[in-house]
Specification:
The protein folds into three domains: 30 residues; 29 residues; 47 residues, no CATH class. It has four helices and six strands. The strands form three sheets. The protein has a two-stranded antiparallel sheet with strand order 1-2. The protein is flat. It is of the alpha+beta class and 109 residues long. This is C2H2-type domain-containing protein.
Length: 109
C-alpha cells in the first residue's frame, strides 16, 4: 500500500477516503453537520453527536473520581484534575475510581 500525502501539509494516510476527509475538514473547512437546536456546525458527525449530548441533553461522559465534576471531553476532565485536585499524569496511582470515591466519602463524614 502506498502512502497518500496531503500536498498542503504533508498529512499521511494509507486510505484515500481518510485523505479526502482530512482535506475537507482541515483545509476546506467544510462543515456538513449542523445542529438543529443552535448555530453549531462541524465537519464530523461524531463531534455533532458529542455537542448534542453535552450541550442540549446535559450528558457528561467523563466524571471526576474525586468530586461531582462532569465533562463532555476527557481533555476537560484532565484539566480539571490538574487545576482543582493537583493530579498530574506523573502523580496518578493505580487506585481504582470506586476506591477513591469510597475513601473520599469516608473522609468527608
Amino acid at each position: 500500500m502506498k502512502n497518500k500525502i496531503c500536498k498542503l501539509c504533508n498529512f499521511k494516510t494509507f486510505r484515500k477516503s481518510e485523505l479526502n476527509t482530512h482535506i475537507n475538514r482541515v483545509h476546506l473547512k467544510i462543515e456538513r453537520h449542523k445542529c438543529e437546536k443552535c448555530e453549531y456546525k462541524t465537519s464530523q458527525k461524531c463531534l455533532l453527536e458529542n455537542h448534542l449530548q453535552s450541550v442540549h441533553f446535559g450528558i457528561k461522559k467523563y466524571e471526576c473520581y474525586m468530586c461531582d465534576f462532569g465533562s463532555k471531553t476527557n481533555h476537560s476532565l484532565q484539566r480539571h484534575l490538574e487545576k482543582i485536585h493537583h493530579v498530574t499524569k506523573e502523580s496518578k496511582s493505580t487506585i481504582h475510581t470506586e476506591d477513591i470515591k469510597e475513601i473520599n466519602t469516608e473522609y468527608l463524614q
